Amino acid sequence: GRGGGKGSAVELPPGGVAMAAGCFRRSIASQLSKVLDLPPENLIKSISAVPVSKKRHVADFQLSIASIIENSSGDCSAQDLHLQAQQLAERLQCDSVVSAISAGPGTVNFTINRELLAKTVLQQVWKDGSEYGVKSELFSTVPRQKAVVEFSSPNIAKKFHIGHLRSTIVGNFIANLKAVLGHEVVRINYLGDWGMQFGLLGVGFQSFGNKEKLKSSPLQHLFEVYVQINKAAEDENTKKLAKDFFRKLEEHDEQALSIWQQFRDLSIEEYIRIYKRLGVHFDEYSGESFYQEKAQEVLKMLEDKGLLQKTIKGTGVVDLSEKKDLSTVSTVMRSDGTSLYITRDLAAAIDRMNKHSWDTMIYVTDKSQSNHFQHLFQILKLMGYDWAERCQHVSFGLVQGMKTRRGEVVFLEDVLNEVRSRMLQNMTSTKTTKETQDPVETAEKVGLAALIIQDFRGLLSSDYQFSWERALQSRGDTGVFLQYTHARLHSLEQMHGNAELTDVNVSCLQEPDAISVLQHLLRYDEVLHRSSQDLQPKHIVSYLLTLSHLAAVAHKTLPVKGSAPAVAQARLCLFHAARSVLANGMKLLGITPVNQM
Length: 597
Ligand code: ARG
Known about the structure:
- It is a single chain.
- By secondary structure, this protein is an alpha/beta fold.
- The chain contains 22 helices and 15 strands.
- A four-stranded antiparallel β-sheet has the order 1-2-4-3.
- A hairpin with a 2-residue loop joins strand 3 (98-104) and strand 4.
- Helix 18 packs across helix 21 (538-557).
- It is globular and about 85 Å long.
- The two termini are 46 Å apart.
- The structure holds arginine.
- Residues 150, 153-155, 190, 192, 345, 363, 365 line the site of arginine (ARG).
- Arginine binds at residues 150, 153-155, 190, 192, 345, 363, 365.
- InterPro entries: aa-tRNA-synth_I_CS (IPR001412), Arg-tRNA-ligase (IPR001278), Arg-tRNA-synth_N_sf (IPR036695), ArgRS_core (IPR035684), DALR_anticod-bd (IPR008909), Rossmann-like_a/b/a_fold (IPR014729), tRNAsynth_Ia_anticodon-bd (IPR009080).
- One of its GO terms (cellular component) is mitochondrial membrane.
- Its EC number is 6.1.1.19.
- This is Probable arginine--tRNA ligase, mitochondrial.
């Protein structure tokens, strides 16, 4: 029969097609469906893998009674639920997949045949590789979509603050997640490349600019010029010159435009180089400047639709109040007829729909812009664009206290350099650190992992206090720990040769610490599913931290070295599977796993 006697090897079915881990859920659901007389599809959602805890090995899956009787009889007491669980458990039978059934408070618990569990999980990880968990039936009902993800979006010549960093890593995560789940993703950087700052920069560059410096480090130089000219701009004459320069830009004066173009091009070049260090790329750098004229068309459309109202001051507003009494308005036009931030955003949203016909569009910024996006979506709705409902603002909280040796964060590059040098210092001061081929590169990747994990551990909406020390701890729930675990598992494989799945004896993987790892691997699809629903990376983060802890324990108690060949091989397979899923999850979060540190 299935599962076989003791000592059976994994038999890969012909063609190497493995049994899906989801098969367990389906198999349980089909038995339940006969007893409960409900379609199995409705039951699958109520069956979940049991999180590995201290009271481990209770079971592998559980059915929540409350979730299946939801609609039938209304509220149930805890006692009721327990009773129902017991009654249901009694009516179910073990089979070739399920080896034990029990009732808990409000749940029916299922234990999977031990060897089948090991065999299935390992096969699945092998077969699906970087798509492990993604092909789960949990996603089978989700249609393939096209998603626009707009993130990072710094302003040229202004500070790249921590909010931009957060937007960059959160947006990258969301785009990665959508892409791995099979959706088409367009990554857009909505650069702040227009506005009065370019009037000031144009004038400032004449007095304080240096062509060499602009070429070698444009972001830094433009920022310096901007700071200097801002001081000078207290004088009325400079102010006037800056205004004139910006007016020239708006009127497409060729000379002014070519200066602006140079500022923009050189800045983008440098951004691309720095984003690369972060492992981030964009499909489009279409910033605010691109929507300058289209914003005028939007004003025209608003006027035609009777949505644009003039105030006494001459500005143009859209009435967003329910009672249409102008109690909530959004200003879309200055008194001189020029557009505002929100007008350009209206133009950008409409343009992206025309260009990409996306199914969802996600904007990633800090929560201070929540009102802005609410207004934006409301106006689109009023304009008759039903797709406004498919726009989403993913907002995040504020981060306090991030300082580098140079002081307050002004450039993204400062943060990257700081985390790299701090990590390098930590690495050279700990004796356990092995000789690495490229310590600087390793320090950067480990340091970035530390930043990302610190940022992703909590709910995105919560504020937190930044701490280099906490982020860079080698023990505890940090990115350093994830990287360390990955490197250790990798070197294990290096030392003992690659694991071969075909001749693995799964009966060698029955120790509690091995089972814990397997049970945890079984849950990966559910965790991905949760993050895909609420777009919170924290589910994946805590999953990977637990995986690392479990793998570290197993690494200690289940040695490969000195074990009988069959045992050693089986353990290598287990560790390979753990490392593979760890690497998948890390990449999803925007972390590049290191092989040694
Ligand atoms: N450049 C803006 C800022 O730094 C962020 C842009 C956000 N995206 C948008 N479509 N408005 O505050």
